Structure prediction request, 389 residues.
Amino acid sequence: MNDMTSQRIALFGATGSIGSQTLSVADSLGLSLDVMTAGSRDREFEVQCRKYRPRIAAMADADAAARLRVSLADTDITVYGGSDGVVEAAAETDADAAVIAISGMAACRPMIEASRRCRRICMANKEAIVAAGGYLLAAIRDGGAELLPVDSEHSAIFQSLAGNRKSDVEKLLLTASGGPFYGKKRAELEKLTAKDALAHPTWSMGKKITVDSATLMNKGFEVIEAMHLFSVPASKIEVVIHRESIVHSMVQFRDHAIIAELGVPDMRTAIAYAITYPAREPGCAGSVDWRTLSSLTFGVPDTETFPLLAFAYKAAEAGGTCPAVMSAADEIAVGAFLRGEIGFTDIFDVVMDTVGICGRGGEASFDEIVAADTEARIRAGELSRRIER
Ligand code: NDP
Ligand code: MG
Prediction:
């Protein structure tokens, strides 16, 4: 793994926020692309394919794939279409690492397939891990790949755990910027629009996850993600508000020593580390300027005003289909909010009411989780339309 320039990666979800930042990492590390996939945006994807010349390009939307096949006819890139085409691309890659940057449950099949062929899975997707983490992580292990987290908090925890005994961990400390509405109270939240929510103070991310940061749902997802990735119960995961996003997360050990990873808030550092681990290559992100950084602040989240963080702990404890229903309902509610159909605080109600209507605790099979995801989308859509104004 030493010579990075000979490394080939497979990138699932190339046109997204994490996908495009992964391509920026590929530029700076000199990585080549074996496989690239996207959902439906064929224009953007064509430009990427022409630049990175993957062996295989796949698009989940079959019509978009058909257009791409025509527009790339002058190249030797093989184009697959449909969600089966994305899975087929995963089955045919033998890249050193597969970066899973597809959003939502659509990431499940490609990630399992890629784990059979690639030595390493660099996992950015969180919705699938929240919904069905136990099954997916077992499938990736069975596939024979090692799993490296890309989400910045989980990358920080992974790095902080290095060289320590799992049995010495007292708790994981997940930092949260608090989002753009930190400090606001319920009455103020009710008037907020999508534009307000998309102005994240520190991280530059996709729209859905930016709204999830504003509601603190993202931090709730990350608690569940950490449970699965590090086999730690939710009761040992604490969320700490840290406005500057310099401390990316921490681990507290039983002697009360705390180890943290720090850096500027730029996802490319975590993406690159997941690909190059255990090596560290010259960074494509900037470094912390200690001369201008006057303070690092920490606080406790306001779970009364932002109820979805505390709710995620309850969903995690209930287990079964509850996390999947919560995640699917959130996706529908955030979509409705971004389109201006429901208000910001309505997201809280849609998510919690949908889990109340169709979440089932206890044990759930993978198929039951997938079915619950579908039902939750229908129920959350109905609830959103009822609220619509
Ligand atoms: P985006 O919405 O920006 O990108 C999603 C990508 O997945 C796009 O390439 C999209 O294609 C593709 N896609 C969408 N639907 C499908 C489908 N059904 N089948 C195949 N491909 C599909 O998301 P982000 O990049 O923000 O996030 C990606 C994942 O990483 C999410 O799970 C998110 O929670 C997680 N994450 C993101 C962070 C961030 O900073 N953005 C930080 C940590 C985690 P198209 O463009 O053609 O629609
Ligand atoms: Mg994160």
Notes: The first strand starts at residue 8 and ends at 12. The chain is about 50% helix and 15% strand. The mean pLDDT is 96. The domain at 4-150 is CATH 3.40.50.720 (Rossmann fold).
